[in-house]
């Protein structure tokens, strides 16, 4: 299985966060289990999502939204993914805090708490 892990862009923040350690850990676990994993850190390389999807062709996408400042970007990315039929999983602090609200949004298939 090909899994793309996305670190949602942090809007209106002067200092960008460091490495997405949670996503790095998940990617390592997935590759050790025989899957292909890639990380797209939108806080650093907020480029064309379509090009990234075309080059990697993921079977599923996991999105990390650690703060409410990432929520808007995560929702926009999820909406685009759902339009083309790619399953979406959200994780992180925001997803853990309000999983029911996120699931009711209709742009997320699964929430990892």
Structural class by secondary-structure content: alpha/beta
What's the average pLDDT? 90
DSSP strand count: 5
> What summary fits the major beta sheet?
5 strands, parallel
Low-pLDDT ranges = none
Main sheet: which strands, in order across? 2-1-3-4-5
Q: For the record, give the distance between the C-alpha atoms at the N and C termini, rounded to a whole number.
A: 22 Å
Give the % helix: 25-40%
Task: Outline the structure in words.
There is one protein chain. With 113 residues, this protein is an alpha/beta fold. The chain is 39% helix and 20% strand. It is built from 5 helices and 5 strands; from the N terminus they run βαβαβαβααβ. The protein has helices at residues 21-32, 49-56, 71-83, 93-97, 99-104, and strands at residues 2-7, 36-41, 60-64, 88-91, 110-111. Strands 2-1-3-4-5 form a 5-stranded parallel β-sheet, sandwiched between helices. Strand 1 (2-7), helix 1 (21-32) and strand 2 (36-41) form a beta-alpha-beta unit. It is globular, with a radius of gyration of 13 Å. The two termini are 22 Å apart.
């Amino acid at each position: 299985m090909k899994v793309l892990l996305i670190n949602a862009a942090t809007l209106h923040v002067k200092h960008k966060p460091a490495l997405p350690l949670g996503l790095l850990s998940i990617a390592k676990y997935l590759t050790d289990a025989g899957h292909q994993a890639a990380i797209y850190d939108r806080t650093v390389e907020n480029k064309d999502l379509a090009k990234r999807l075309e080059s990697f062709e993921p079977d599923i996408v996991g999105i990390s939204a650690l703060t409410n400042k990432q929520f808007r970007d995560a929702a926009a990315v999820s909406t685009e993914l759902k339009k083309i039929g790619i399953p979406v999983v959200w994780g992180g602090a925001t997803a853990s805090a309000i999983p029911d609200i996120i699931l009711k949004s209709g742009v997320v298939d699964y929430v990892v708490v």
